[in-house]
Design goal:
alpha/beta, Rossmann fold, 2 domains, 9-stranded mixed sheet, 6-stranded parallel sheet, binds ligand 26Q, carbohydrate metabolism, transferase
């Protein structure tokens, strides 16, 4: 028997070249003389895909044979980015592919970079889902991801006069090389109509059509499936309208149905088409559950064994309708008594919470809900009644007059509820789910997030990866905690200089790319200080830019002092309707323009805001970073995962005691982490102090001067009041305590400056971050879910 691993290791440059040419000819229909970069990229992708498919089939077969428990990860978002390089790296074909392409007269990186970045997610939650799929495959756990095949992923961001402009994202305009359409896997999904006699007559319906993408794990030993649903009309086309000459009307059913999988909602802070969002949620959840039950019945039959063989994880409340939908399928469609159906559903479901921000906890008006999902509203009422009957003194409600609360619904319908970092989980217990936690003290567990080392170290930082492999062999790739074996090398001058050289070369590559793409020249000797993440007040990009302004003023006041040259790099998108966040972007761009043009500070401070942050840009930036900005208001960032990627790649963190920063600092050592700011408890106390912002400004002349420069139009002479509202916010309500944390942030930044001037000391600290970050592998996180939530085990 030839397994996938044997296949990939016996696949030589020769074979690779032949496979590429084969697909160029017979799949793309081009000859080498007329092929475009796109053609070559597709040909290579098909060649790699062929290598994945054998292992994929083998995995499916082994899962059936083992009769093992299956994990289903339901998520509105999968931020998978590019898949070609990932596939090449995991199958260990990258060198062969590069050699083959070079022999064909091509630039391998140009071919690999031709792939669009699949941005089917907003940020951390979606990227976590993608890392989890990869880890599930690397560990050999039978699993499926279920989501939506958005035609348009997260918008493309560009800047016009420093302002964010959103453009449609069009990743599916080209053929998606990795997916397989599954015409046999289609489900009819109903909406509206009437609920009666424990049943439902929907008034309308759409078809959910499956598209499968194999997700291959490390060394190609296992591959799982990401199944994404596209919405299609029940009747493709209204022939009667067409024959009457109403061509637009004839196409309407199709257009209406397709709307459901048309676009990814950009975050929670926009004024959205609420009805369409709820339709999306039900659409993909119902299709996924129908598919899960079909597979279960084929394999096992007796629905009462569902929790034994199936674990379904809800990625936040977005698929929370899975609770009532599963009860509906078990009770209404299969005659299982209501209470038993509820227990079976609960034993099958787990719920992950990713936020404590009240505005991000989903609530639906029961008017809308009842109109779209009348039977589900009845079921939710019965779930609510059952909860109140069991706990008569509980004041927790799932239904309130006029609203359905998805957080509470998810909690009572899941046997485990988890937070994503130790601090976040504790705050869940003491705040949003305090009372439910008292009723169910064993239900809430913590599963601290992690990131896949294949993409976030091996693939994106080959220089550092090779250095590690040289010293400890390559087993670390599948077992990241082995990085601790490098601990003894951190005292070794040879290792440290090689470590520093890898970072320097990564920075030079990034600088060259930024110069080529954006025309900004950066000196790689400067400290690369990087904040890349969604724009949000709680993430406090405005704290960072205020510090930059204060630093600029300080350098101008004493240009000959011994400053540590640094470039502040920002990237991130703001929700289109989140005007304050968009104004922060514009402010950063305005400040950059003034500061970068100042001859006095030119070689000491630069500010760059790179447009259109995505997974691919993160892969470029993180290996080249010296300093990682993780500066959220304590208690607000559930975990963060970028923070882990930076630490792993040897950037030092300047950060607050928030989310997983706490655990990162514990592991890398407090002497290798720049801590500042109030704790979560102090934040709560500080807000109660009258005029807290004004008081902070009054005692810090640097902060006052920085705010004054923003206020007086120093960065926007043509419209001096442009940022008055930002200054007003930071001087008054300042909910996120930017002003109150500024002084300590400045202090920590100056410690960063001093530390960076000691190049050897800095490298040692950076290396310690790498060596001690092994715990932040998503393999470890997945093992935690398997043990604490899913009761699932690997099959290999
Ligand atoms: C909700 C309703 C309507 C439209 C959109 C949404 C919506 C969409 C996306 C709500 C939330 C999100 C995304 C949340 C998110 O990314 N949270 C992050 O999850 C990471 C993984 O756990 C954490 O590391 C981050 O701390 C957390 O902010």
């Amino acid at each position: 028997k030839v397994d996938a691993m044997t296949v990939s290791t016996t696949f030589t440059t020769q074979d690779m070249r032949a496979a590429i040419l084969h697909h160029l000819t017979y799949t793309m229909g081009k000859d080498a003389d007329h092929a475009t970069t796109y053609d070559w990229r597709m040909a290579l992708s098909f060649a790699v895909r062929d290598r994945i498919v054998d292992g994929w089939f083998a995995s499916t077969r082994k899962s059936y044979e083992a009769g093992a428990k299956r994990v289903y990860y339901l998520s509105m978002e999968f931020l998978i980015g590019r898949l070609l390089q990932d596939g090449l790296v995991n199958l260990r074909l990258l060198d062969d592919a590069c050699e083959a392409l070079t022999a064909l007269g091509l630039d391998p990186w140009q071919v690999i970079s031709n792939e669009p970045d699949a941005a089917l997610g907003n940020g951390g939650l979606g990227r976590l889902a993608a890392c989890f799929l990869e880890s599930l495959s690397s560990l050999g756990v039978p699993a499926h991801g279920y989501g939506i095949r958005y035609e348009h992923g997260l918008f493309r961001q560009s800047f016009v006069d420093g302002r964010q402009v959103e453009l449609p994202e069009t990743w599916l305009q080209q053929h998606h090389a990795w997916e397989f359409e599954r015409p046999e896997a289609r489900y009819r999904i109903g909406f509206g109509g009437d609920a009666r006699d424990a049943g439902w007559d929907p008034a309308e319906a759409v078809i959910a059509a499956a598209y499968d993408t194999p997700i291959v794990g490390w060394q190609g030993r296992w591959a799982n499936t990401l199944r994404l649903w596209a919405a299609k009309p029940v009747e493709a086309f209204d022939l009667d309208s067409f024959n009457r000459g109403d061509f637009v009307g004839a196409a309407t059913p199709e257009a209406m149905a397709r709307t459901i999988s048309r676009v990814l909602y950009p975050d929670d802070t926009t004024e959205i088409g609420k009805e369409l969002r709820l339709k999306q949620e039900y659409f993909f959840t119902a299709a996924s559950l129908a598919d899960i039950l079909r597979r279960f019945e084929m394999e096992h039959g007796d629905l009462r064994k569902l929790p034994e063989k199936v674990a379904i994880q809800l990625n936040d409340t977005h698929p929370a309708i899975a609770g009532p939908e599963l009860v509906r399928l078990l009770h209404d469609d299969n005659g299982i008594p209501f209470d038993e159906a509820m227990d079976l559903a609960r034993s099958t479901l787990g719920y992950t919470n990713h936020t404590l921000l009240p505005e991000a906890l989903e609530r639906w008006s029961d008017h809308l809900f009842g109109r779209l999902l009348p039977r589900h509203l009845e079921i939710i009422d019965r779930i609510d009644q059952a909860h109140r009957a069991t706990y008569p003194s509980s004041s927790v409600t799932i239904r309130e007059p006029g609203v359905v609360k998805m957080g509470e619904l998810s909690f009572v319908m899941a046997h485990r509820v988890n937070g994503v970092s130790a601090l976040h989980t504790e705050l869940m217990k003491s705040t949003v789910f305090k009372e439910l936690n008292a009723l169910h003290p064993d239900r809430i567990v913590n599963e601290t997030n992690g990131v896949t080392p294949r993409r976030w170290l091996l693939s994106s930082n080959p220089r550092l990866a090779s250095l590690i492999t040289e010293r400890i062999g390559e087993d670390w790739v599948g077992d990241l905690e082995q990085l601790s074996r490098l601990e003894e090398h951190v005292g070794d001058a040879g290792f440290l200089s090689a470590y520093a050289e890898a970072k320097r070369a990564n920075k030079a590559d990034l600088a060259a790319w930024i110069e080529a793409e954006h025309g900004i020249a950066l000196d790689p000797a400067m400290m690369f200080d990087v904040q890349i993440k969604r724009l949000h007040e709680y993430k406090r990009q405005h704290l960072n830019i205020l510090e930059a302004i204060a630093l600029w003023q300080a350098i101008r006041a004493a240009p000959d002092a011994d400053w540590t040259p640094r470039v502040k790099i920002f990237a991130g998108k703001a929700a289109p309707g989140y005007h304050f966040a968009k104004d922060i972007i514009r402010l950063i761009n305005d400040v950059a323009e003034v500061v970068n043009a100042d001859p006095v500070t030119r070689d000491k401070l630069k500010i760059v805001f790179l447009p259109n942050y995505n997974v691919t840009l993160a892969e470029r930036l993180i290996p080249a970073s010296d300093l990682s900005e993780q500066i959220s208001t304590a208690g607000k960032e559930a975990s963060g995962t970028g923070n882990m990627k930076f630490a792993l790649n040897g950037a030092l963190t300047i950060g607050t005691l928030d989310g997983a920063n706490v655990e990162i600092r514990e592991r890398v050592g407090e002497e290798n982490f720049f801590l500042f700011g109030m704790t979560a408890d102090e934040v709560v106390a500080r807000r109660k102090i009258k005029d807290h912002a004004a008081k902070a400004i009054a005692v810090d002349p640097r902060l006052a001067a920085a705010l004054a420069a923003v206020r007086d139009g120093t960065f926007c002479a043509e419209e001096p009041d442009r940022y008055a509202h930002i200054v007003q916010n930071l001087s008054g309500p300042d909910y996120f305590l930017v002003s109150s944390d500024f002084t300590d942030y400045w202090r920590a930044q100056r410690e960063v400056d001093a530390a960076y001037r000691d190049a050897d000391g800095w490298t040692r600290m950076a290396a310690r971050n790498t060596v001690r970050s092994g715990w932040f592998s998503s393999d470890r996180t997945i093992r935690g879910y398997m043990a604490d939530v899913w009761g699932a085990e690997p099959v290999i």
